[in-house]
Amino acid sequence: MSAKVDPGAMEVMTLGEVARWAGGRLEGGDPDQVIQKVVVDSRRLLEPGSLFVALEGPRFDGHAFVHQAFEQGAVAAMVHHGSRAEFGEGPLIRVSDTRAALQAVAAAWRARFDIPVVAITGSNGKTIVKDMLAKMLGATCTVHASPGSYNSQVGVPLSLLGIRSDHDVAIVEVGVSHRGDMARQVRMVRPTHGILTNIGSAHAAGLGDARGIAEEKSLLFQDLNEGHLVLSQDVQRQFSDLFHVKPRTYDQVSGDQQGRADVVARGVAARGAGWRFELAVRDLGSREIRLGVPGLHNVRNATAAAAMATLLGASLDEVARGLRRFELSEMRLEMHTTSAGITLINDTYNADPVSARAALEVLRNFSGGQRAVAIFGDMLDLGARAADAHRELGQAVARHRIDELFLVGEFAALMGEAAVAAGMSPERVHRAEHLEELHRMLERELSPGDVVLFKASRTVGLDRAARRLIESVAPTRLFIDLGAIRDNYHALSRRLGDEVGVMAVVKSFGYGNDATRVSQLLEGQGVQALAVAYPDEAIPLRRRGIRLPILVTNVQASEADKIAKYDLTALIYARPVARALAAQAERVGKRVSVHLEIDTGMRRVGLLPEDAVAFAREVHRMQALSIEGVMTHLAAADDPDEDAFTHRQLDTFDQVLAGIRAAGVPTGVVHAANTAAAWRFERARYDMVRVGLGLYGLHPSEAVEDQARDVRPALCFTTRVLHLQQVAPGDTVGYGRSWRAPRGEARRLATIAVGYNDGFPRFLSNGGEVMIAGTRCPVVGRVCMDVAMVDVTDAGRVDVGDEVLLFGRDGEDQIAIEEWAERGHTISYELLCRISPRVRRIFLTE
């Protein structure tokens, strides 16, 4: 397979071409100015030649950030409203609709390339199938694949605009949420090949039943040639009338069944944390496949990807090799903090130019005022683009003003040369010939407070250097899947619709999970505001560059200076606090934003309904205060037995709101719903909802879980086995001799490295469970401060150092934190907040 491009086409576009493709008018600037990249996020340091497109949505408007985009290095901006005075002096392309214009530009760019373009759609599995296919083809082709989960009406055009003339094949993920979405996607993508992963309930609200979903998704494949479409046998059987070409089908069968599909996975057997199976492809034969990722559904995903890979010319050996090297992308980037105070960003799963630049963004954004250290090895499987890609990444390192750069590998050396040529001091670029030399350098150079990124292709072995530093991290760890938090936020946003915003509650250290990192993620995803309990929780967020409105729910008059200094929003319901805030605001010459709290039945804090209008009038007269919102707190929205009480609270709240407005006082943003009400009560959503625990995929009750089926748990608490021993029949274990080995048989016990000081509750003594190697093992004896004992007699082979799942999901294994809560007669909120600082937080993201 070889790349083909229109001989008149170049690998870059010009400002004049973009204006023409967009149907816009160029104001200022040189029409021959080269545009290297199109971006929609002004908060990042932009690459040279970047065009910023100001998108507008129900809860955001990129036009407010055009000036910032120019400051970040954009050479031009595309806009559809606003005056020159608002934007500064940079060149503008004026269009009637920036979103439609972005799609038109992407369509024109895509039309330049005559290469296979594989479009992948389906209700789920799109990203994994895309990544698997890219891995299979990458050994012999230069592949462009959509970054992350870029499959929306904005993500797809950005993906297409990444195609270059040296790409042999492009793989584009395509998603839809409503009728009519796919027609716009088709005009841009114009696929030559397609994969439909499955038809499920995702986005059913916008597309109807399964038939409606299949009809919309099938539009993507209307113009394919015979044999260029891959479908599962089930989809072909159900919806064959929707597809106008004969597809290549795939299936997964049990036992020794042969199956009727063109590509079949058979004899599937569990193998460690993954699977072993035989892949049979019609006319090509079969191969044994080893897939090192959990989840039986990933066998089907692998079979779908293999069906397309072999259609595009990949051999069965290349398919097998690609799957053997594949790992789930959502586990790529991990953040650790060592006992020496060094933050490690471990991203050694794989490396390509897109993920490498994204990792640099993470390093730059999270380092704040700390020293940023980047450690890079070679990026492999880039074919003819390898040298140029490494040089471009070196230039990006210099632009991001990374403090120190360490390099291992021949291609990585080109990064260093390019970084120096782009202005980085040679004294800050360090080259190691091998990993042992790198480790000696790091031991000498790293200091407490440093934020360190490790990035390379897996086979380079840079993960071993990262592991040597990570070994100092305590064995008990809380893994926080930022990808799950992101997806949960978007699942909730889809349920709420475009008119309702989300305030993320990140109080109490983000429910024990590090408010800063969670807030940084959510700010990038479009959340409208944050909420904390006390001003001191908000100050670190401001110092780390979080610019969102931050509502502080507990404010004392003595802390008015913090509210004003850090541009926080105070929740108020008492005159002394309001007066202190107004006085402080006048002293510093600014207005302070406030929300009013109405007590409609919680009886905790807040204004009684009969006092609310008078208080609102008084605050409204205070020139230095601005009423930006009114809220109440629902006492029992998670309990169906109390729904009548919840509706009475909302009735009272509506009456108060009407009275405040009748008095001529603006109510600003109105919010009442917590996580439970956001899912269960449409009338409680108003302008915004406050969601905390729900972002982590956890539920305050079964009634909420029934409504929130699109979310997934984001937390996993683990430790390690410290010691193993045999105990004789009748032996007692632990303090108070509270557990005795059954008479007649010896038992094998493991001491695990977690105790109640870590957040492993003492009420799990003598009966709680942990999971080791897929087997539930009971806690025996009393949980101690630093360790606990569990019975592993029935768990098969267990060794010192083996991982122990305390709660969360590990592949197919799961222990829910709700099990702990039920045993302890408490709630998951309390248990999360008990997890101590001694437990290392490790963040997983894409």
Number of helices: 29
Helix content: 25-40%
SS content category? alpha/beta
Total domain modules? 5
C-alpha Rg (nearest Å)? 28 Å
The main β sheet shows up as:
15 strands, mixed
Strand content: 15-25%
DSSP strand tally: 43
Task: Give the N-terminus to C-terminus distance in angstroms.
Answer: 30 Å
Overall residue-averaged pLDDT value: 87
Q: What's the CATH architecture name of the largest domain? A: Alpha-Beta Barrel
Shape verdict: globular
Low confidence ranges: 1-10, 201-206
The level 1 CATH classification of the largest domain is Alpha Beta
Full CATH superfamily name of the largest domain: Alanine racemase
CATH fold type of the largest domain: TIM Barrel
Protein described:
Pathway: Cell wall biogenesis; peptidoglycan biosynthesis; Amino-acid biosynthesis; D-alanine biosynthesis; D-alanine from L-alanine: step 1/1. GO terms for molecular function: alanine racemase activity; ATP binding; pyridoxal phosphate binding; UDP-N-acetylmuramoyl-tripeptide-D-alanyl-D-alanine ligase activity; UDP-N-acetylmuramoylalanyl-D-glutamyl-2,6-diaminopimelate-D-alanyl-D-alanine ligase activity. Catalyzes the interconversion of L-alanine and D-alanine. May also act on other amino acids. Helices cover 33% and strands 24% of the residues. It is an alpha/beta fold and 846 residues long. The chain has 5 domains: 92 residues, Udp-n-acetylmuramoylalanyl-d-glutamate--2,6- Diaminopimelate Ligase, Chain: A, domain 1; 210 residues, UDP-N-acetylmuramoyl-L-alanine:D-glutamate ligase (3-Layer(aba) Sandwich); 140 residues, Mur ligase, C-terminal domain (Protein-Tyrosine Phosphatase, Chain A, Alpha-Beta Complex); 228 residues, TIM Barrel, CATH 3.20.20; 131 residues, Beta Barrel (Lyase, Ornithine Decarboxylase, Chain A, domain 1), CATH 2.40.37.10. The longest helix has 20 residues. The chain starts with 12 loop residues before the first strand and ends with a strand.
